[in-house]
Amino acid sequence: MENKDNNKSVLNFLKKEGFYVILFVCLCIIATVTAITTKNNKKVDNSPKTTQNQKADSNKPDGSVSLSQKDKEINNAVQVKQNEDVKKADTGMQVSTEKEVSVSNSSQPEFIKPVEGEIVMKYSQTPVWWETSKSYRPNFGINIKANVGTPVKAVASGEVKSINENGSFGTTVTIYHPESGKATVYGNLDKEVKVKKGDKVTQGQEIGKIGKTSLRGMSEEIGNNFLHFEVLKNLKEDAQYSSENPEKYIKY
């Protein structure tokens, strides 16, 4: 009798609570299956997408491979441009240098010796001793030892600008040389010069002879046996401001 009552109690419990237990188990199974299915679906979906993305990236014109090639092309183009710029710069420098050399050469006069001899008094802006005047004075040229009567030649082609007979160096001829823009002065000449103002002279042409006209003598030994020779940068200034050392252009 007691067993029957227990069986009835179990049956009643199963009837009441069994439904909820079964429902819970079913929900767990459904949730588990759903989770597994969703996970598998994600794996399946991601795999083709990755492949598709890889294909798309490889086919893109701006993909990693294409970008690398484009970078190389750009770098090559930049390098070529830089090389061209360097070449142009070098060419420009070369042309500029050639022009400078050309200008320098054109302004550098090619003078010959006005007379053969030796320099007995050098160019000096500092006062030097003059025997005949017993005084110290600058020498804005060079004094070349040569005997009275020695022919004096034009050191370069040019035009006779002046003939002066009243200066410290006696009869003096000044010749302008247009190619260099310089002028040359020949002093202590004989009064009978072979040119006149305005004459065109050529290089090596005789313009006169050494005389005894200089008021400045160097010493008793040399006396007036010398040619006083000057080089001027231009004719616009006095000799003391425009004079140059003739030994820059003529070597003795």
Automatic annotation (TrEMBL):
Top-rank taxon, per record: Bacteria
GO MF entry, a single one: metalloendopeptidase activity
Comp. bias intervals (Polar residues): 47-56
The keyword ATP-binding belongs to this UniProt entry's keyword annotation: no
Membrane-spanning ranges: 20-38
Gene3D superfamilies from the UniProt entry: Glucose Permease (Domain IIA)
EC numbers for this chain: 3.4.24.-
Record's keyword terms, sorted: Hydrolase, Membrane, Transmembrane, Transmembrane helix
Protein name per Swiss-Prot or TrEMBL: Murein DD-endopeptidase MepM
Annotated source species: Clostridium colicanis DSM 13634
